[in-house]
Amino acid sequence: MKRLVSALLLSALPLAGCGHHFETATPQGFVELEDQEAYDYRATTADGLVVAVREIEHEPKGEMAFWTRAVENRMRQRGGYALLGTRDVKTKSGLDGKQLRFGHDESGKPHLYYVTIFVTESYLFLIEAGGTKELMEKGGAGLDQFIESFRVN
Amino acid sequence: MKDLPLGTSLWWRALSLCLLAFFAAGCGATASSMPGAVAPKTASAEAPAEPAATGVNFRNDDADLYREAEERPLPARGGMAQATPPAPMKKEASGVPDAATEGKERASVATGSDGKSVAGPMLIYKAQLYMAVFETKKAIDAVEKLAKDNGGYLVSREDNRITVRVPSGKFDGAIDEIAKMGDLLHRNVNVQDVTAEYTDLAIRMRNLEIMRERLEELLKKAAKVEEALAVERELERVAGELERIKGRLKLLRELVTYSTITVEFQPRPVDHVDSKVRLPFPWLDSLGLGELLRL
User: Fold this and answer.
1) What's the pTM?
2) Is the ipTM, as predicted for this complex, more than 0.95?
3) Residue A108: its chain B contacts at CB < 8 A?
């Protein structure tokens, strides 16, 4: 009986990503924002370093290379973002992904914008992180942990 | 009616012949300004044209003169011989660089002020680079420094755009260096061949200088006020035309000696359709810092 109650309580806990097909833990120093329309999850620090997750139905189907190139073209050619680098990432649960790192001036100040892409059979997951260059460089370790802890259900 | 005195009659005939010679020389040399003439070419993809038929009705002997390479002096003053207009200066064949090399050979700017033909093609190089909008100020500072370090100079500078000029021999190297300063989104290089225009202007200038000398001599010999005034009016006109041509020659030399590079920090303009494929996935449109940081 006690075990059943514990299981019910645990399942009621507001885990990040509840109702979606992913799970992630809000990083230290961040606060999760509620009622997000464009995002399935979004959290911010008090200084304005923001991390977000989008869950997109994988239709039409495409390979990682296609979606990576699509995002790169969108940000560079149409947005004027500078592609600073590309790296492979892997979550603790073994999911492989690709991270694109961009730079862009906002109101004359250099900002960094990272897009991490995971591709599964049914969904695309985009993890976005952005903020001033200074904040992003300081919060690098925390962002890496956030990505590593990302899980797909 | 009494006949005019012999000296005055000769003087007027000489003046008339000089003016006729000037107009004929001017018309023959100004190929580029007449209908159907050759305009300055772009992209250096074509060989330079032969001196174009100008459509001016030369006398038959004049037409031959303009095609010869030797300059002939005007006859001695006071002679009744038919004055022949000065032939164009000797024109050497000018080669054109292979367009595929995209301007690897730079024009050696011969001093056109003496009317001599230029040693090589006169090419004006311009480049437009579109860079990603990141650390713009730092990049603009670097571009300005690069130009100055290479013997060039700043033309204009704004928040997200800078135009510099560098010696034409440093053009390619400067572009390569600027491309390393950030994420180069697009590069556009334009080459304009102004050899024909430059040569044409140099010939006209030389002819005008000869005309000016002759008019100055006539002015000294003018016996009457009316004659002097007529010559002075013509001198003034010739001087004005000379200044305009010299100004244009100077500008062309400047443009050939220094190449122009404009760097813009913005996405490529929308009219370049081939670079902006828009995939039918609405979520792509909402990516970016603008949406992410709007809390």
Assistant:
1) 0.67
2) no
3) 136-137, 159
